[in-house]
UniProtKB/TrEMBL annotation:
The gene is steT_1. It is a multi-pass membrane protein. GO terms for cellular component: membrane. It comes from the Bacteria. Keywords: Membrane, Transmembrane, Transmembrane helix. Coiled coil: none annotated. It is found in: Membrane. The lineage of its organism: Bacteria, Pseudomonadati, Bacteroidota, Sphingobacteriia, Sphingobacteriales. InterPro entries: AA/rel_permease1 (IPR002293), AminoAcid_Transporter (IPR050598). Its main location: membrane. The chain crosses the membrane at residues 12-33, 45-68, 89-115, 135-159, 171-190, 219-238, 259-281, 306-339, 359-377, 383-406, 418-440, 446-464. One of its GO terms (molecular function) is L-amino acid transmembrane transporter activity. This is Serine/threonine exchanger SteT. It comes from Sphingobacterium mizutaii.
Length: 471
């Protein structure tokens, strides 16, 4: 049977690639996770330090990935980089984890977040409204809406990258503008008494555990490090998927230049917005209010302070736009990883085929189906906690790969070189390893399951390889 010779169409310019990066990063996290960070750190100063560390790590990784993307400007992103630096076992293990949990569970979680905030406008779509009950198992209207959104966006992306990019670029520009306006309105509603409580008190730079009832307890030194790493889980998750443009390299114009630039620009834009948003929170909400926000929805509490009764409606619409656009970017980028794996004979054969619109439609639908299954399990949130450690492991491996490739393949063209090499990449590696070790030590119930899921990829690789060899 003749193989489909259709090739990717280079339809994405620098603006599109940058909006893919920024849009995939901005989901629902920035509106929620600061509540948990407030409880873990107990002070405005440490809240901002955690977000600054997260921003530095994300930007350092993105600037380092620019070198890898300029060397290997083809679809697959991280999968390709890991294969070139370490060989197929490591790259397959990443691809397996990416497919099994990282990308598909994230798509599910973002889809359900869209549904949860839609329920503020349409209460019948709430996660507590059950459409089907079998024993202790429930399917809620929020889950059904999440599935519908995932299938809709998957369908849109099967119609060609042009459709996906229009949705992505338009929605990302809207949500960036919306967040900037929200920050400006927040600073306009600045409360000096609240600001002084957060920033001019003795606890401003005191790292402590802040209970929902407002009580505080100090940490030992090692426990404090664990608290910082726990806070970083939410901040790093909110900044994740910053590498999305590298996955669609085959569809980006002038990829050697535009991938690295889009990674840098996208992460800078989002990092600045995140820092300003959290600074704004400290000007309208006391730390105790942030820590005790209902269901951790700190942005909802802030919106009520800023906009009054209409605040919830304003923010619900913002988050709906944000999560819808975020999922579009995740869906678009994710399928290209499976495409690259299939090209190496390590994934379902049909996922390497492009349809008449020059997109991997089979890979898109397969990804969408697995994401829908995660929606039905209701366990996506737990899995995201488990996998955060693993995500950083692969980021660290990719950046170590820059050092390996400079030594082993020095003659490869490098149109762009990692900024601040070797210092900035080395700092990221040290921070990443520290974060991983602290999570393994302080949150083993979340980290070991994720590591086990990842390690399962090794025997699966050899099973797939043996079957391929026997054909």
């Amino acid at each position: 049977m003749e193989e489909n010779k259709q090739e990717f169409k280079k339809s994405l310019g620098l603006l599109d690639a940058t909006m893919l990066v920024a849009g995939s990063m901005i989901g629902s996290g920035i509106f929620i996770v600061s509540s948990d960070i407030a409880r873990n750190t107990g002070s405005a100063g440490w809240l901002m330090i955690v977000w600054a560390i997260s921003g530095f790590m994300t930007l350092a990784a993105a600037l380092s990935y620019g070198e890898l993307s300029s060397m290997f400007p083809k679809a697959g992103g991280q999968y390709v980089y890991l294969k070139e630096a370490y060989g197929p076992v490591v790259s397959f293990t990443f691809g397996w984890t990416f497919f099994a949990v990282i990308q598909t569970a994230t798509i599910a979680a973002v889809g359900v977040a869209f549904a949860k905030f839609t329920a503020y406008l349409f209460p019948s779509l709430d996660e507590d409204v059950y459409l089907l009950t079998i024993g202790t198992y429930h399917i809620s209207s929020a889950q059904v809406l999440a599935i519908a959104v995932i299938l809709l966006l998957t369908f849109i992306n099967t119609l060609g990258v042009q459709n996906g990019k229009v949705v992505q670029t338009t929605l990302t520009l809207i949500k960036i503008l919306s967040l900037v306006l929200a920050v400006l309105f927040g600073f306009a509603a600045f409360d000096l008494e609240v600001w002084n409580h957060n920033w001019n008190s003795a606890d401003t730079w005191n790292l402590s555990r802040l209970a929902v009832d407002g009580g505080k307890s100090d940490y030992t030194f090692l426990a404090g490090l664990g608290a910082i790493s726990a806070g970083l889980v939410g901040a790093l998750f909110s900044s994740d998927s910053w590498h999305s443009s590298s996955a669609v390299a085959g569809e980006i114009k002038n990829p050697q230049r535009n991938i690295g630039l889009s990674l840098a620009l996208g992460t800078i834009i989002v990092t600045v917005i995140y820092l300003l948003t959290n600074l704004m929170y400290t000007g309208v909400l006391q730390m105790e209010e942030m820590a005790s926000a209902p269901k951790d929805r700190v942005a909802m509490v802030a919106a009520q302070e800023i906009f009054g009764p209409i605040g919830i409606t304003v923010l619900a619409i913002m988050i709906m736009v944000s999560t819808f656009g975020c999922n579009n970017g995740l869906i678009m980028a994710g399928a290209r990883i499976y495409y690259s794996m299939a090209k190496d004979g390590l994934f379902f054969k049909k996922t390497k085929e492009l349809n008449k619109h020059a997109v991997p439609s089979y890979a898109l639908w397969l990804q969408g189906i697995i994401a829908c299954v995660w929606c039905l399990t209701g366990k996506y949130g737990d899995l995201l906690d488990m996998i955060t450690c693993v995500v950083v492991i692969f980021y660290v491996l990719c950046i170590i790969g820059i050092f390996i490739l400079r030594k082993n393949r020095p003659d490869l063209p490098r149109p762009y070189k990692a900024l601040g090499y070797p210092i900035i990449p080395a700092i990221y590696i040290l921070l990443g390893i520290s974060f991983i070790l602290l999570l393994v030590f302080y949150k083993p119930q979340f980290t070991w399951p994720g590591i086990i899921i990842t390690l399962l990829g090794i025997p699966i690789y050899f099973i797939v390889k043996s079957k391929k060899s026997s054909l």
